[in-house]
Every structure is written in structure tokens, then in C-alpha cells.
Amino acid sequence: MDENDPNQMVLELLKAMLEGKNSKIEAALWKIEALHSPDPVKEEIIEALRRLGQEQVAASEFIGELAKGHLDVEAPPAIASLGNYKQLQANLRQINWILDRIAAGDYGHRLDFLGDFERTMNQMVAALRDKDELESRLEKSELMFRTVVETSPTTITITDLNGKVQFMNPAGLAMWGYEIGEVLGRDITEFLADDRGRKEILNIVDRTGRSEPKVAEFLSLKNNGTEFWIEAHGTLMSDETGRPDRIMYLVWDVDYRMRLEKALEDSEKRYRTMVESSSSMIFILDTDLSIIYGNRQGYFTLNDGSNMTGSSMTTFLDDHSTVDMLKALLRSGEGVVMTKDTVMTTHASIRLWVQMTAQIVPFAQGKAVFVSCNDITNLKRTEDKLRSATRKLTLLGSLTRHDVINYLTSLEGYLELAQVRNKDEAIDRHLKKARQSAANILHQMELTRNYQNLGLMEPEWIDITSGVQKEMAGVELGDVKIISSLPNMEVLADPIILSCIKNVVQNSLKHGQKTTKVEFSFLEEGENGFLIIEDDGKGIPASLKEQIFEWGYKGRTGHGLHFIREALSASGMWIRENGIEGKGARFEIIIPKENYRILSPGSQ
Length: 604
Known about the structure:
There is one protein chain. This protein is α+β, with helices and mostly antiparallel strands. Helix content is 46%, strand content 22%. The chain has 5 domains: 1-106, no CATH class; 152-268, Beta-Lactamase (2-Layer Sandwich), CATH 3.30.450; 277-375, PAS domain (Beta-Lactamase, 2-Layer Sandwich); 380-452; 460-603, Histidine kinase-like ATPase, C-terminal domain (Heat Shock Protein 90, 2-Layer Sandwich), CATH 3.30.565.10. The strands form 4 sheets. Strands 2-1-5-4-3 form a 5-stranded antiparallel sheet. Strand 4 and strand 5 (244-253) form a beta hairpin.
């Protein structure tokens, strides 16, 4: 087949255009650039094909940029087939502008040029506008209620017109010593200690609305039978039509202040515990692990909302070790907190993963077990899926790497044979470069093995002091001295941390040029500890202190410092270079306080 045949050139262009690959079209266009025919018709056909090919390349590049979301790309001029695409581009620009305005909270824009889409879009804008308005009203209402309930030290009680309690705020519950379920529906007179007060409490409210609210003192009665004086006044509350339907009482304890402070302190402690655990299942267990109290979340999660008082917690626990943990906690006494991930089975036989936290608390005349359970079922499922996906990706990476290395080995063999048989020096130079490229690819594939394993191992407590000594024993130090003032310490990390420390030292030996010593030390500052590795080599310029941790810095193929930073990051740590150029390099591994522990004073 003659590649210089004009017909073949034209056919090649047509095939490239049908295939739609710009590189092939441009190659074919280049071939026919100088093609001419004495026949005017053929010459016109060649020119038309040349122009059509150029337009197709330009149109393809324009459409490709649109597909990538580059809406500001300029359309090639004078290409009729791009008319619809240009209109689409204009529409997308308009939509993008409108969405930007909506994101900024401006809902005063509509679409009127995209048929069915404009109806959906405009409905969405209207819904967002209504949603914002509703959320604003709800936020104001919630803020008002929260302010009254949570910040007011005044007891607030709301009853119907007959004095039946409909609401009581935490200050009131604390003052009288009840739980909310004990007061709802009760008569307000039941909180008073004498007949006078029971008769007058409803009369302090002006039901005509023509006079100021009255303030009166009453002898009140706590839940435990203790009598104390209160001051109260009542105000009518109206419904949305303006008709009075409730009474709001504001009540103050005017008895002994010390007793009030103690009651508020106990109430605050109870309130804080419940608030901080409000989204959790909360139980109080007797010493035999029977349920004394359970919150609403616990009852609904485990028992369809039915009361669980008296039931044994062990009937909902699948793991006997969790029962053993609770029994051990009872033996240990107060101050001990135990946490465990365990499985619970609900009344409907649904298995749930929970994170259980338990501790001993004072209760009545003895002690009880306070248990808080957070449902982590979805988290466990996600972890299982993540582990499965990681295994699959690891397997795929291993298989791919294995195949690529095999192909590279074959390629290296063929290149070596070609180099042996080749006599042309120019070709020999190309073969050497090809072999070096193959070697570089092989090195990069080996590097992916290290990155693949990052973060897969569970962190463990690593003996850094003895670990560093063992790692240094395997390093070719020459005349370089190793000096360590590390304390006897452990670090919670991936075991690869020791290899990272070793690689930092090897980096100092390789690039320090005049290095004579490498020193290890440790210091604590704020919420972090700093494991320091410093040498007396040439140091690192200030402009390069971050670049040395970048992938492929100065064409390096090992990516040593980049890999070290990534490996340490997987364990929640960080590394930086903080030395002075000309005096030596100083690498600081920053370790969060919770990730290290000093076992004893002194240094090894």
C-alpha cells in the first residue's frame, strides 16, 4: 500500500474523521497539506475535505472543553454545526449565573428559556425561598423558647384555666423535686402546703385583663415533704384567636438560699448529664444489672417504647464479655469508666452495634451503674464495607503490579537482546534510554507497594527508645556518631514509624555531605510532643524546607521524605524541617499528646 497515493491519503483522512480522534485527523491533514490535483473538481474536493477535517478538530476540542465544564471556552467561528452547542453554552452560562445568585441567597431570578427544566428549576427556587422564611421563623421561635427555658433562673409553670399543669421548666422541677412526668396533668394546688394557698393560687390571676397581675406568697410543699415559702404571680395567656386559654405562673423560692443552691446544684448535675447524652440510650442499673431507669431513647430503641424497669440488662446483651465488664465495674467502685463496642438485641430481635460507656454513680443509699450506649451500627457496616473495598483494591493493585513487573521484565530482556545485536550507536543510545525508563517504571511500581499498605495496620504502642537503637544498628554509619537523649517512651502509631525514622537518618547521611553526628531528642510543648532528629551537615535552605517533602522533588525517584510524611500522617503525626542552613538539618516529628507516653523519668 503506497502511503503517498493521493487516494490513500484522502481515504486515511476520511477514516480518521469517522473514528473521531483528533490526533489521527491532524496527522492525515498534515499529509494532504501539499496535495493538489490538476483536476479542478478533485482539487475542490480535497480543499473541502481539508476544511471539513480542520473544522471537525476545532469542533471536537470545543465540545470537549464544554464536557469538562469549561463554560467560558470560545467557540470556533464560522462552523455551522456548532450552532446548537453555542446555544447550550449560553444557556448553561445563564443557569450557572442564576445558581450563583441562589447560593448567595438571592431568590429573585427565574428561568424562562428551557422548557420543562425551567418549571422544575423555578419550583426549586420557590421552595428554597419558602424554606428560608420558615426556618427563620422557626429559629426565632426556638431561640425565644430556649432562652426562657435554659437561661431563666425563675420557675415557669403553665396550666390550663382550671389549674392543671401543662408545662414546667427545669428550674421548677428542681425547686419542687419532681421529674417532668410526675407534674404534667397535676393540679397546681397540689404543690401548696395549706388550704389558704390552695384557694388563693387561682385568684391571683386577673381573668378580666383590666388590672395588673397580683404577686402573693404561699407555703409550698416539695416532693420529699419539705415545706418552703414561694412568691408567685400569674398571667393569662391567649390562643391565636385572642381567647384566654392558659395561665403562666412565675414562681421564686424565697426560703433559705443555701437549700435552693443545693437543689439547683443537684438539678444542674442531673440536667447536664442528661443533656450531654440526650441522643444516646441511657440506663441506670442496679447492682444485679436490672434496669432502674432508662431514658426515652433507650426504651424506644430496645423495647418499642415500653417501660423496661425491672428487666435485666443482660437479656439485651449478646456478648458475655460485656456482662463481665459491668460486673467488674461494680467491683471496682466509683471513678472508673469503662468503654466497649458490643452487640445488643432489641425486643424485635434486631441486632445493633453500640458503643457502651459505663461508670459507677451514687444512687439512693448505695451505688448504681450509669450506662450510655451510642448506636454505631451504620459505622460498623461502613467499616466492614471499607475493609472489603480495601481488600479488593489491595488485591487489584497487587495483581496489576505483578503483571506490570512481569511485562517490564520481559521488556528489559528484549531491550537487552536488541542492544546486544544492535551495531548502530544512535539506536544504542535510544535503547539505553528505553532500558532506563523501564527501570524507572519498575522502581515506581515497587514504590506503590509501600503506599498501598499505608493505614492498613492498626496502631500499636511502639517502644521508640529501643526501636531507634535497633534501627540504627542496621544503618551504614561510617564515621558518623549517633547520640540519643530520648526518654523511655512509647508512641501509638503504625509500626512503620521506625522505618520512617531510619529513612530520615539515611537522608541525613546521603545529603548532609559533611555530617559527623546525628542526635535524637524529645521535648514537650503545649498539646504535642516533638521527636527531634538533627545532624551537623550542610542543612537545608529556607526556600526548600517544604519542597523536600513534595512528590518527585528535583526528579528524585525514591520519594523518601514524601513517603515519610504520608506514613506519619496516617498515624495522626506530622514531620517538618526546622534546621538552619549551614549548621545542619533538624527534622521534627510532631506527635499529639494522646499518642505518646513517657514510661519513666530519665533517658536510655
